[in-house]
Design goal:
By secondary structure, the protein is of the alpha/beta class. It is 42% helix and 22% strand. The chain is built from 6 helices and 6 strands, in the order βαααβββαββαα. The longest helix has 19 residues. The structure holds iron/sulfur cluster.
Length: 175
């Protein structure tokens, strides 16, 4: 089984969304969102592109394969730059980036840090990985593995975030 950064992010937003995505039920504009994020980074921070590389990173934890694709990694400084087009700060973004930091650590890259950027908010958060974060990520991996294997799709959450979710119609089609 493989768990990637997208599932880590979605798990912290909505377990149903995580289950749908994990089971290959994808709505078209999900991939556009990833493209938008890259475009936003490139247009907001053009001067940084030269020293950044794209990094595909893998690790194994408890017989589960972990995978992350870091779009902008500064190997010299050991800094991940992640850009979000969101107009609000979300815990899910933070956990996605901490998952990348954990993957780096599992690959022997210690003391890396991350900069989470919200150009629309003009806000920048600096992140590091603590022992508690690793504990949380280990538990999250186990929970996502169980969720992925479950045949039951979790219930809708009736939250504000549903309005901008790509699964909105699928979730509320009968209402
Ligand atoms: S519409 Fe709401 S309940 Fe459905 S997957 Fe999206 S966030 Fe979850």
């Amino acid at each position: 089984m493989t768990i990637n950064a997208t599932l880590i992010n979605l798990y912290h937003v909505c377990k149903r969304e995580c289950w749908l995505h994990a089971n290959g039920i994808n709505m078209e504009h999900t991939s556009d969102t990833v493209y938008d994020g890259k475009l936003l980074h490139e247009t907001s921070y053009p001067q940084r592109n030269e020293k950044h590389t794209e990094l595909n990173i893998e690790a194994a934890y408890n017989n589960i394969s972990l995978f992350g694709k870091i779009d902008f990694y500064d190997a010299g400084q050991k800094i991940i730059h992640e850009t979000k087009r969101s107009d609000k700060v979300e815990k899910a973004h933070e956990w996605q980036v901490k998952f990348y930091l954990w993957l780096l650590k599992l690959n022997g890259i210690e003391e890396a840090s991350a900069i989470l950027e919200y150009p629309l908010l003009r806000q920048t958060d600096q992140l590091r990985l603590s022992a508690e974060d690793i504990e949380h990520l280990e538990k999250t991996i186990q929970s996502i593995a169980q969720l992925k294997e479950s045949e039951e799709c979790p219930p809708v959450i009736n939250a504000k975030v549903c309005k901008s979710c790509s699964y909105y119609e699928l979730c509320y089609i009968n209402e």
